[in-house]
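TL;DR need structure tokens for one chain.
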Amino acid sequence: MTDLSQPGGAETAQGGALMLDFGGRRERIPAGATFVIGRGTDLSIDDNPYVHRRFLEIAQRDGMWWLTNAGSGLTASVASADGLAQAWLAPGATMTLVFGVTTVMFTAGETTYELSLAAEAPYYQVSTSWNPGAGIDGVTEMLSPVQRILLTALAEPMLRPDAEGAVQLPSMEQVAVRLGWPLEKLERRVGTLCSKFARMGIQGLERNAQGELLASARSRIVEHAVGARIVTAEDLELLDAFVAQDAVGATL
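>> reply
TL;DR here they are.
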């Protein structure tokens, strides 16, 4: 588990900067600075009209780095690098960045973005004797093999080695073709998967008054699965094997 008894110290944190990495673009955010992500900002995403002009703000106050969602509609998924600490940053919400590396993901329109923030002087240190895989197994064991493959198919572009900061997630129709399932079957299984994660307390998987999943639920479950390391690049082999086996069965 994370050792919370070893703070880096206020004096060290006050002098520490953040290193932002977005699709290979690296930028150092000096101590005391404010950095904005949006359109026409410090990290500008001008090619996507769904991104708020002023979306995420990174600022240092009282010796701590803070991440604020200054937007009005988009949300962000925030996770520690090991995937065991997760947060859902809704519009207007603020959280501290206390870990050595923090991963931030958000979806705007049909594009999902991922960036990392590495602290020069992290407030919390992680014990070197800690095994990060131990806590993740408890979550993955709750998934059936088919649900794990389904999650991998939904998140596939983000898991590929050539993913660079911004990817377009496949449509439900594309995922259905990839898995060789009827669209209705896929929609049922995605609904079941979202319900399972919602019961675990994962936010952003709400349904409307008619009991239908919100359009943002699919991207939210992908962000959570990738950020929590529930599915990783290693699962792509399982997906490919599943698809190949299904294709062979269809020809017999």
